[in-house]
Design a protein that fits this description.
Blueprint (H helix, E strand, L loop, with lengths): L12 H13 L4 H29 L3 H5 L1 E8 L4 E2 L6 E2 L4 E7 L5 E4 L1 H8 L14
Antiparallel strand pairs: 1-4, 2-3, 4-5
Length: 132
């Protein structure tokens, strides 16, 4: 049997009235309304932050590239995208985890982006370097 925890929170009179009115309109108790709101908010919060984190990781800034401490090679078991250039990486292709000095976040890079970060700033692997 699951034991429920009691959570107390202080709210203003105005907020309490809003909550109480909403509970009455939904024919539920204040406790159930609050519980449902908290559960929904946490689910939305997780989804939102997951999406934002993925967008933030999508393109590495030059500073972030300089903060890469090292790489770990891996063989992919599902399709994914390079977190720097967005190229689709297929199952069984080699990709690289980029580990950063001051963060726990890891980025997944294709071989081209990994090699680019190892080269001097003048030469970039994704750019056409011919002088024709």
């Amino acid at each position: 049997m699951t034991t429920n925890k009691v959570l107390n929170a202080r709210v203003s009179d105005k907020l309490y009235e809003k909550i109480s009115d909403k509970a009455k309109k939904n024919r539920t108790t204040v406790s159930n309304l609050i519980r449902n709101l908290v559960e929904d908010a946490l689910e939305i919060h997780e989804d939102f932050h997951e999406a934002v984190d993925k967008k933030i990781r999508k393109y590495l800034s030059e500073t972030e590239k300089q903060d890469i401490l090292g790489y770990q090679e891996m063989v992919l078991v599902k399709d994914t995208e390079c977190d720097n250039c967005g190229m689709l990486l297929k199952v069984s292709e080699t990709a690289y985890f980029a580990f950063f000095e001051d963060r726990d976040v890891k980025a997944i890079l294709c071989a081209t982006c990994k090699n680019e970060s190892l080269q001097p700033e003048k030469t970039k692997a994704h750019e056409n370097t011919s002088n024709k």
